[in-house]
Amino acid sequence: MGITGVLGRRCDAVMRSGRVLNGQCKCGRSSLWNVGLCILRKSSSTVTNVGMETCVDPTANKTDVAVRPFHEIPGPKGLPIIGSLWEYTFLGKLDPRRFDEVLWNRYQEYGKIYKEDLGPRGTFVRIADPGDIETVYRNEGRYPHRPSFPLVRESMEAAGQELLKHRARSESSFNGQGLEWYRTRSAVNRTLLRRSGVALFHPTLNEISDDFLALLKRSLDENNTVPDITWQIRRYNTEVAGTTIFGRRPGCLEPDFSGSCQTSEMIKSIDDFFASWLKLEIGFPLTKYLLKDTWNGYMNAHRNILRIVKYHMDLDVEYEDSRPSVLGYLLSESSLSDTDAAMSAVELFVGGMQSSSHADMFQLYELARHPHVQETIRREVTEALPKGEAVTSAHLHKLPYLKAFVKETFRFHPVGLLHMRILDRDVVLSGYRVPAHTTIEIPMSVLGRLEELYPQADRFLPERWLRRGPNGFRSRMFSHVTPFGHGPRACIGRRLAEDKFYIQIAKLVQNFDLHCDEEADTVTGCFQELSPTPNIRFTPR
Ligand code: HEM
């Protein structure tokens, strides 16, 4: 199904949520098609407003369409107290390490809306209907609420108190809520979400990308594969995160890198953080007390990362003269205290490194598996920029196919499986009333596989994202593949991460032919990961 289908589905949602009265759009157009157009073009503010009003006041639905109660939403029948949590243990059939498959099977069984009671972890409503997703985002308000992680908060605050001798505020970008979240977030936005702000980091990204290519060349074995490629990619992303945030090269890509004290500590601390995070935050609420060592490891990881941030803050005398640094900008923001700036730097450092590493690995794999796609990117890059030249914003405008490749890779391999929101108002989703404060989850991996949204969904076709692509694909006016989330709470590092991908892939295809015959699968950790790591051949060009 193309755009028409999407429109039709949006209109269904409109009907269900009471935006349409007696089959007629309130703006006066009569058919569903036109109602869809009204919304898409935003030509009728009435339609949008009516939709919002209806969602805010669910009683409005009663007169028009029967709204079914929450308890009628289908879903797995769980046991008392623990819900369906047991199914994920050795007693059940579900494999939490293949959570993408669990989500797909649940979708097949229960459809586009279902609820899952996970006992002490709460009840989750999962939706895969584009109209419902739009309803959720339209109702997220000015300060969207994503569930926070209480143990991240606790350990950050404790580490902050210890190292900064100051009560560390917990309402950071990642974990905070409400007005306090907004205050920090808007300060970081000024640095990281402006195109011009991110363009300042392009020279740094070019420099590190060149060093990464040199590292790959040095590491090639006799088969042109890179032993332990995932480790090399982690070094690379730590270098990117460290340099963009602190404004100084940590040295992770140095030829004689053997894990010099601070740089290896950076990588290790982030690995420890994620390994213990999964056990602590995903487990039962009391896991912290049961897994004392894990909790101590978690605290240590936070302490180490904050210590590194503090070390750079103490060196800050010459920030103006050095390369741009996010920490430098944050420290100069009058709306943030030094503690706020330090805490934000910690979460930017942690947030960016792992997600980008997994995304890099998926991109290398898909490039290597699709020589034709790789060749098309190479042709585009060759036309846009001479080999050896630094990639600038002007070049990036000329690389639509490369960008389409990145998007298609995210459709196939969403690094973050679920996007979450908690709304402060009742909404009607797929005809069911979902009360305020319910955790609503949007499974990215399911959306990307829907044939009605992405024809030939099982084929890797970057051209589907081009405005006028071949093979009969049409421009997509609204994408459901949003790897970085959506709205004011979407990923703060999105522009930086995307530009990093574009620059590194452009340079990579100029310097290597990639090839891979092996099939790799994915596993679910904190993020989706490629596993086992496939052998990719990098033949120098
Ligand atoms: C492949 C790379 C990345 C992916 C796929 C990714 C994905 C995401 C997603 C899905 C969210 C939640 C958005 C939402 O709830 O709507 C998020 C939030 C966030 N990301 Fe990223 N991210 C990536 C890279 C980065 C980088 C490089 C940084 C830091 C420079 C970063 C920092 C953050 C922060 C701080 C948040 C919390 C924002 C908030 O709640 O206000 N991410 N990211």
Detailed description of the structure:
- Heme binds at residue 491.
- Keywords: Heme, Iron, Metal-binding, Monooxygenase, Oxidoreductase.
- InterPro entries: CYP11_CYP27_families, Cyt_P450, Cyt_P450_CS, Cyt_P450_E_grp-I, Cyt_P450_sf.
- This is Cytochrome P450 10-like.
- It is a single chain.
- The chain has 541 residues and is α+β, with helices and mostly antiparallel strands.
- The chain is built from 21 helices and 12 strands.
- It has a single domain (70-540), classed as Orthogonal Bundle (Cytochrome p450).
- A hairpin with a 2-residue loop joins β1 and β2 (24-25).
- α1 packs across α2 (32-41), α1 packs across α6 and α15 (326-332) packs antiparallel against α16.
- The radius of gyration is 24 Å and the shape is globular.
- Mean pLDDT is 82; it is low at 1-63.
- The structure holds protoporphyrin IX containing FE.
Model regions low in confidence, pLDDT < 50 over at least 5 residues: 1-63
Distinct small molecules bound, one entry per kind = protoporphyrin IX containing FE
Spatial gap, N to C terminus? 41 Å
State the CATH architecture.
Orthogonal Bundle
Protein name: Cytochrome P450 10-like
Family: Belongs to the cytochrome P450 family.
Keywords: Heme, Iron, Metal-binding, Monooxygenase, Oxidoreductase
Cofactor: heme
